[in-house]
Specification:
243 residues, five-stranded antiparallel sheet, binds fe (ii) ion, alpha+beta
């Protein structure tokens, strides 16, 4: 996986297409920045390392990739859709809309280990994480997930995990890199990846991913509770699964 450190000039002050005043639309992000200024620099010009490369997963990807060819195997997910009973999250979602994101450009297709337990087994077991949730994502060209942090509230609520329990999320690529497929972790652009490459963001690191290419982008998140086994497996930097 190659890394480029990029300079991003985010100008929220004007938008000539819609005439929106984006300086009024960044309150959640600005609050986060103030609260977390001791945890990260929030300076797009700095060459920082904002994620950890964990290694490569060596398993047979074909059964999963076959499943992912058929869109009927997925559920549609839109990052700008409101979630009932999650006021804080909905406030962030509203902010995505103000930035210009829509139902169309934030759509992704998702399937989980609960939908296809047998096919997902290698992708669940390799990590050694407990309470492991796996999601495979398909993004068509023109679709992106806006600049956000992972709250991990879903898994905490699902399994009743308190805030002092250490939950991590691995991001995994399911195919070799294709033109137009990008992942931005803090100040680091990831591209030219190899099938099976796994990264982990630094805690509370903002990130975004998009497909501005010519073929669907296939990725995966693996989320779970850190265990002694998962720590040992991470040290090896090579992940596999045997039945
Ligand atoms: Fe995320």
């Amino acid at each position: 996986m190659k890394i480029d450190v990029t300079f991003l000039s985010l100008d929220f002050s004007k938008n000539s297409m819609s005439g929106k005043d984006y300086s009024q639309s960044t309150s959640n992000f600005e609050s986060f920045r103030k609260e977390n200024k001791s945890n990260w620099h929030f300076d797009p010009s700095i060459e920082s390392n904002d994620y950890e490369y964990l290694g490569r997963l060596d398993v047979d990807f074909n059964p999963l990739l076959e499943l992912m060819k058929d869109d009927k195997n997925f559920k549609e997910f839109r990052m700008v859709e409101e979630m009932k009973g999650h006021e804080k999250l909905n406030s962030r979602i509203e902010e995505f809309r103000k930035w210009g994101f829509t139902e169309h450009n934030t759509k992704s297709l998702q399937m989980t280990d609960k939908d296809f337990p047998e096919v997902f087994k290698p992708f669940k077991e390799f990590s050694g994480l407990d309470f492991c949730n796996v999601v495979a994502l398909k993004q068509y060209p023109g679709q992106c997930l806006p600049w956000h942090i992972d709250t991990l509230v879903g898994i905490r609520n699902e399994y009743g995990l308190s805030n002092d329990i250490n939950i991590v999320r691995y991001s995994l690529v399911l195919e070799n890199w294709k033109w137009g497929h990008y992942f931005l972790a803090g100040n680091n652009v990831l591209h030219q990846w190899t099938q099976g490459d796994i990264i982990q963001l630094l805690p509370n690191m903002h990130h975004t991913t998009c497909n501005s290419g010519i073929e669907p982008k296939l990725t995966m998140t693996v989320t779970g509770v850190v265990t002694e086994k998962s720590i040992e497996l991470k040290k090896l930097k090579h992940f596999t699964y045997t039945k």
